[in-house]
UniProtKB/TrEMBL annotation:
GO BP, sorted A to Z: regulation of translational fidelity; tRNA processing
Protein name as annotated: Threonylcarbamoyl-AMP synthase
Family statement: Belongs to the SUA5 family.
Domain YrdC-like: residue ranges: 32-218
Amino acid sequence: MSAIPPERLVFHSLHAAVDWILKHPNAREDLQKAIDKGALSLRQGKLTAFPTETVYGLGADALNRDAVKLIFKAKQRPFYDPLIVHISELQQLDTLVLEFPEKARRLAEAFWPGPLTLVLKKDSRVPDIVTAGHPTVAIRMPSNPWARELIHRAGTPVAAPSANLFGRTSPTTAAHVAEQLSGSYEVLIDAGACRVGLESTVLSLAGERPLLLRSGGVSREQIEEIIGPVEVPAKTRAGDAESPGMLPNHYAPVTPLLMVEDVRDYAENRDIGCILFEKPDIDFQGPTVQVSGNRNADEIAVNIYAALRSLDGKGLRLIVCEWCPESGIGAAVNDRLTKASAKPQG
């Protein structure tokens, strides 16, 4: 995927690519018009759903409290869960943070634009609704060029969680967004599938020690190569989270997800869907989705949410999946699978 120029669109399947081409006969012009409409929507205090390299986001002007409130309403999201603010250029940090420490500068040089979110001490101009009342704000610069162009044209930082109902599986295509949120946004920018497929890594630099709040597209090892040791905090309770994605159950399909050692043990069940990490050597009676050809963690990350959504729509009794190899982004995949398979508390 990294060999494909960032301005080229990618898709989960040939069918999805053909469908997009048929809907957008003037591809570049159509995309530019959508970005113009999306930027206007943001300036008017409305919501725009847009692609990033991680997942699709549901965006609002981060400095407009009333606009941000619409995000929580659309997603049915509790106000105790903070949002990530997206920027298109470093100058936008001036309205968001009190300081940009040296470690943040080094990480930004290494990983921005890209799937790394930094939690920093916030400026008073950032509404408390964005940060769930915390004195910190989570910020990142997406590598998706269409996302950055949208933010630049809007002329404001954009607060944007994933564009799905709260707690449900994140969207990696515009169709995923429309399935759950159609009618709640002013503009939906369709720019194919997301290249990373998982939410960003979140690192807090607001305290004495760097804290890894969420694993994602930039690994802990990559971060430690730049700034040294990073700690992982204890589990977070509702209301204490400095970052989205820290709650114990999240990213979940409606159909129960069960993590197993070997999906082949469920091959005889017609009412169980199986997610496959390699080409199967046996026949499965129930539906399957293959997300990688050889247990490649990057491929699994790109396709895992689409696989969960595909099987979730088939009326199955259960979805089963194996653990991803832990190398690279694999740790982040397993974090999402752990939370997606967790039983709701209470």
